[in-house]
Amino acid sequence: MRQAQPRLRAAFSLGVTTLLVVGLVASQWLLGDFPQQMQFNARLAPPSVDHWLGTDALGRELWARTLAGLALSFWVGCLAALLSTLIALSLAALATLSARLDALVSLLIDTLLSVPHLILLMLIAFALGGGTQAVIIAVAVTHWPSLARVLRAELWQLRQAPYVRISRALGKSRWFVLHGHLLPHLLPHCLVGALLLFPHAILHEAALTFLGFGLSPSQPAIGVLLADATRYLSGGYWWLGVFPGLGLLLMVLGFERLSSQLRRAL
Amino acid sequence: MLNAHRLSFRFSPDTPMLEDVSLTLEAGQWLGLSGDSGAGKSTLGKLLAGYLAPQAGAVTLDGAALPKSGMQPVQWLPQSPELAVNPRWRVGKILREAWTPSDAQCQAFGVQPSWLSRLPQSLSGGELQRVCVLRALAPEVRFLVADEISTMLDPITQLELWQALKREAEQRQLGVLVISHDSALLERLCPKCYHLRDGQLTLI
Fold it and tell me: Can you give chain A as a three-state secondary structure string?
């Protein structure tokens, strides 16, 4: 019963999150270019029955732009978290091959962890010329060290397990041991790690875009919406910043909760 | 012939485990090894099977060092079979990792065909130990280090396991080092027994 409850909670969270993600992706398809449509007779309209979350300076519906922004953030976050996990897993696997490679990987992890996150993100995104691809690469390249450290430690521990040592004594190659014994054990760690990386990736994507190093201002990204909102805040147009910010917060919290419940269940 | 020549081993500089230990195991020979808990019996077994490297001395097989890769001719059988198998693999896959025993060989060790599709958690300790022993008997194997393999088994299962292993060892001229606390068991199985104390071997 004690085992079942965390699993039940995790399954419930997974169900709710999947439903929300499907809704988010479907809304993109249903809305088409509606988030970009301007209504000049309804510029900066406050939230009302006609304009649910209000409109921006060009009369674009904020609810549609927030949904589109969240969908965009979701894809960027997904790809960045996936790439980050792959980098972490590959380097952790590489570290198990020899003591010298392990020292090299550990040095790389320590070096990256010692550099301030956001500065490195900005430098990489700037060097790559900005845009969606640059943001994905910058977030992926800067987010793997913590997960790589966990996976490396787990792999070192697993390597000492009697059945792994016996497998080597039975003539199996290092590659066989890695993909036959070690990697299947790491999959739950990778899944939880990727889910934990996801909210960070979204937040950093929004931060990069907000600072002007990320997605193009023509895209309805959450960072773009928040950056636009700062220009109108002093005029009392609070809805421009509150609703996209709230949407981002809910998405980040939702995935944080899912990952912590999955960590308990797996 | 498996030969341990003047082996010394310590886990940390101030705690010597084995000092200048020499041992010879001939093909087809059964050798017993007893000693108190923590005396270094398992450490010596692991050194002989190549799981640990000695700080001094060498383990040789027919005068040459143990092979670095491929199926090892000296196999180590640990006390806990649960730790010796991948918990995510089914029994059939666990056996095939080493070799594919015939139905008759499976039957000789009491490994039932129905077990092959089961996960190790669904077998008892005794059943799983038989699977582990059978797995270690690949054709290339010439010596076995049986480290307390029957300690957790009931007397009948112990008897069946040792009888099956004895038959196989006789047929194939396998050399077996039996590590156990049970002096009665060692007396029955092994014509020659050593006792390990303070890092030194004594013939008993």
Answer: CCCHHHHHHHHHHHHHHHHHHHHHHHHHHHHCCHHHCCCHHHCCCCCCCCCCCCECCCCCEHHHHHHHHHHHHHHHHHHHHHHHHHHHHHHHHHHCCCHHHHHHHHHHHHHHHHCCHHHHHHHHHHHCCCHHHHHHHHHHHHHCHHHHHHHHHHHHHHHCCHHHHHHHHECCCHHHHHHHHHHHHHHHHHHHHHHHHHHHHHHHHHHHHHCCCCCCCCCCCHHHHHHHHHHHHHHCCCHHHHHHHHHHHHHHHHHHHHHHHHHHHC
